[in-house]
Specification:
The chain is built from 26 helices and 22 strands. By secondary structure, it is of the alpha+beta class. It folds into three domains: 27-169, Jelly Rolls; 173-273 and 280-653, no CATH class; 663-809, no CATH class. Helix 10 packs across helix 20, helix 12 (418-439) runs antiparallel to helix 15 and helix 14 (463-483) packs across helix 18 (570-585). The longest helix is centred in the N-terminal third of the chain and has 37 residues, at 172-208. The N and C termini lie far apart (70 Å).
Length: 816
């Protein structure tokens, strides 16, 4: 009872603290395009910018300042006004120019403005005492890069926009309203998603694991993992059978799974009330962590038109292809000139199933499901840590780490790494089931089949995460073999069970494995071997330590590792060996063996939160147990401290999304509608792109133009970023893509224009990212005609040269 009171006190403290200290300051506006300074700010030379605050409680403005690499000595004044014509200041802030760092955003913070929602403001910077040679400046874009504001120099409106960001104070009340609105507006989707994430897996659990030792909460967690594995398997075998999937088929499948689950629940209850459980405070706390994790993941992406990150485009595209064909696609047409399909499709089939069940848009579902899975990662983490430590308190603390403390997996949203997340969700379930199958006294064929379903689903969800599993299984079998080295019968039992699991998993996965081996152009697993040694230097490790994780989490993990070594905990040693092995195989310049580099370094590092959760949870649970037995009130203080850390972590996660990681924003959406209405269906757009850091001949889109095929049905010059793994319709296609990408930087040259015409490019889309384009030259070039310009989007038509007269035909009409 005393422990329960302590935990309940901790929950109370969490709620109270969130209301007092939970105010965070997310970014509201971000204009991050800049190419030149506006000039020195001195005397009567002033610079200002109008903007719109979309949220209440505007609380700060960041401005990208520069010092000309010198020490300036005068005062800089920041004025916030309601408009350029208003003489009265709402806020006035004075800073010493000596305190300003070169080429760095300087934040001007002020007391929140309660009624700032949807209001226009104007900030002005001046330095009356400064003189030329002793003055600062501001970076800006000479073109309109911010849709809702204008640049002012010396009080006069100018073309372009300053580089700035605005912040707002996000209070508990505002969060609660947003959460309530989200639930109220999406309750049908929430109900259907809960059913889809649990019913198929629970039905499999009922058939394959009827006498499992899992309690109700663990059964639901395992069921979710089995559901995520079942969906791609069902998609695969329906495709092989020629069954076209759709709403009716999926609802029928759900009805069957629901019936099996209901029968199982009734039987278990009748046989002895196995499902009747008392109130378990650990599960209550786990639910609280899950709820906070969901809030911290979903609130930052509210209102986004598309998922953030470079990976999100091809995830949405693949899900759309599955929806359109009612099966796994065999090509990327009509969205890209690729005639094969070898990408893992677990996450995308989940999106397709939800679309068929709810009718919701694929792009929106990709965003919501990706973020929801991110938060739900606390559940398999709890199971994973509990399995290895045999301590639910450690499992709870491990879930806390993953949900609210570790930067990962929350940071996955910036890149759109939803497939890796899906694989990592299934991974602990597959490992747990494998351990159950091997360690149980009497071999259970049905348990082995449950493990096979999880493993086959893992393979279809993410190829590299399957390698994570295989490496763990290798170490685990070595450990179990060594422990039973004197028992030949036990050794044979261990290896025969593992081989049985491997055989039936191969049978389930064989159709897709055959397709993969038959069609893959380039090994989709081999991505890191071409990197130079500097990419894997100690500096890279230090970067991972500071950015990809956090110092407190590393300290807690090291504490758990040290304690495990001290106590000779075999499971901690096993996980440590697994983490080291993963890091080693991801670095071909540390260990030069065949297959090294198959899993890339970044994929491994950003997955380290899983073993880290075990180490940290183990350490904190033992530390709390030690303190609880020796110091009065230690339990209360420990609960308060841990939950306060979680609170701070939740506040940090609310600010994790970088605005530039969202490729498509309001100006792009307006331009997409214009493209659909005003360009021919066979139009082909040149869009901005960049080369991969480790593969210069492989390109990826960098702004809203990347999404044109999916949002407008028009063709572009940049395929989804995974095109290197697929077979192109034309062998010269990859080289063509690379050449057209390079041409973007010199569009006003004769060679670039000839290349565009040879490849039947009719339009050029210039979006938010303008760092590699000479826009002035494009505007002056007579071979292009500006036909659309709003905010940061510019669309040019390419004129067709007439052989008989040398004149050109313009395409389209200009809209401003």
């Amino acid at each position: 009872m005393k422990k329960i009171k302590t935990l309940l006190l901790g929950v109370t403290f969490l709620i109270v603290s969130f209301s007092i200290e939970g105010c965070v300051n997310p970014i509201d506006n971000s204009q991050s395009q800049f190419s030149q300074p506006v000039g020195e700010i001195y005397g009567s030379h002033t610079v200002g910018q109008t903007f719109v605050s979309h949220q209440a409680r505007l609380s700060g403005v960041d401005v990208l300042l520069a010092t000309y690499a010198r020490e300036n000595t005068q005062l800089l004044m920041f004025h916030l006004k309601s408009s350029p014509s208003n003489a009265d200041d709402i806020v006035t802030i004075t800073v010493d120019a000596m305190a300003i760092k070169d080429n760095t955003y300087h934040q001007f913070s002020f007391s929140p403005l309660p009624d700032s929602r949807d209001k226009s403001y104007y900030f002005l910077l001046e330095s009356p005492q400064s003189v030329p040679g002793n003055a600062i400046t501001i970076w800006h874009s000479p073109y309109d890069a911010y849709a809702e504001g204008e640049l002012y120099i010396n009080g006069q409106k100018q073309e372009g926009d300053l580089a700035f960001r605005t912040y707002y104070d996000y209070t508990l009340g505002a969060m609660a309203r947003d959460v309530w609105d989200g639930v109220a507006n999406n309750w049908r989707l929430i109900v259907v998603a809960v059913l889809m994430f649990t019913l198929p897996g629970y039905a499999l659990f009922a058939v394959l694991l009827p006498r499992s030792e899992f309690d109700l909460a663990e059964r639901l967690i395992v069921s979710m993992g089995l559901s995520l594995a079942f969906v791609p398997l069902a998609t695969l075998f329906c495709t092989l059978a020629g069954v076209r999937l759709g709403g009716a088929a999926i609802w029928a499948m759900m009805a069957v799974c629901g019936g099996i689950s209901l029968i199982s629940i009734v039987r278990e209850t009748v046989r002895g009330g196995r499902l009747a459980v008392g109130v378990d405070i650990t599960h209550v706390m786990l639910f609280a962590i899950l709820a906070l994790s969901l809030i911290a993941r979903l609130l930052p992406v509210r209102g986004l038109a598309v998922p953030p990150g470079s990976d999100s485009y091809h995830h949405c595209l693949i899900a759309q292809l599955i929806v359109e064909r009612g099966a796994i696609p065999d090509s990327y047409e009509p969205y890209a000139a690729l005639e094969s399909f070898t990408y893992h499709f677990g996450f995308h089939s989940i999106i397709a199933f939800l679309h068929w069940l709810t009718g919701h848009d694929v792009i929106r579902l990709t965003l919501l499901v990706g973020q929801t899975l991110n938060a739900l990662m606390v559940l398999p983490t709890f199971l994973f840590v509990t399995e290895f430590t045999k301590d639910k308190s450690a499992g709870l603390l491990g879930a806390l780490v993953v949900g609210l403390i570790s930067i990962f997996p929350a940071y996955y949203t910036k890149w759109g790494r939803f497939t890796q997340l899906t694989g990592l969700f299934v991974l602990p379930i597959a490992i747990t089931l494998m351990i159950k199958c091997i360690e149980v006294e009497k071999m259970s064929f049905r348990c082995a089949m449950a493990c096979c379903v999880a493993l086959a689903g893992l393979f279809l969800s993410h190829y590299r995460i399957l390698i994570f599993y295989l490496l763990f299984a290798f170490l685990y079998l070595l450990y179990r073999s060594f422990s039973n080295r004197n028992n030949l019968g036990k050794l044979l039992s261990i290896w025969s069970r593992f081989c049985l699991i491997g055989f039936f998993t191969s049978v389930l996965a064989l159709p897709w494995l055959w397709n993969l081996l038959s069609n893959v152009r380039e090994n989709p697993l081999q991505s890191g071997v071409s990197l130079d040694p500097g990419f894997f230097s100690m500096a890279r490790i230090q970067e991972a330590s500071s950015f990809y994780s956090s110092i407190p989490l590393i300290a807690l993990s090291l504490g758990g590792i040290f304690l495990g070594l001290l106590r000779k905990e075999k499971t901690i040693l096993l996980l440590l060996g697994w983490a080291i092995l993963l890091l080693a195989i991801s670095n071909p310049y540390w260990v030069r063996l065949p297959g090294i580099g198959t899993v890339d370094f970044i994929t491994v590092v950003i997955s380290m939160f899983l073993p880290a959760s075990v180490f940290a949870g183990y350490f904190m649970a033992n530390l709390a147990r030690f303190a609880y037995g020796r110091f009065p009130g230690a339990g209360v203080m420990g609960s308060v401290a841990i939950l306060a850390i979680a609170l701070l972590g939740a506040g940090r996660l609310l600010k994790i999304l970088a605005p530039l990681s969202v490729y498509v924003q309001k100006p792009d959406l307006v331009a997409m509608r214009w493209i659909r209405d005003n360009t021919p269906e066979d139009a082909k757009f040149l869009v901005n792109s960049t080369a991969f850091e480790w593969k210069p001949d492989h390109v990826i889109g960098v702004d809203g133009g990347y999404w044109i095929p999916l949002l407008t049905g028009r063709e572009t010059t940049v395929p989804p970023m995974i095109y290197g793994f697929e077979n192109p319709l034309d062998e010269g296609y990859p080289a063509q893509v690379s050449a057209l990408s390079r041409a973007f930087a010199s569009l006003d040259s004769a060679d670039a224009l000839r290349l565009l015409r040879e490849n039947k490019v009719t339009h050029v889309y210039v979006g938010r990212h303008k760092s590699n384009i000479h826009l002035e030259g494009l505007l002056r070039c007579s071979s292009y005609q500006l036909i659309y310009h709003k905010d940061w989007v510019w669309i040019f038509g390419i004129k067709e040269a007439r052989e008989d007269s040398g004149e050109a035909d313009p395409i389209g009409r200009f809209v401003h």
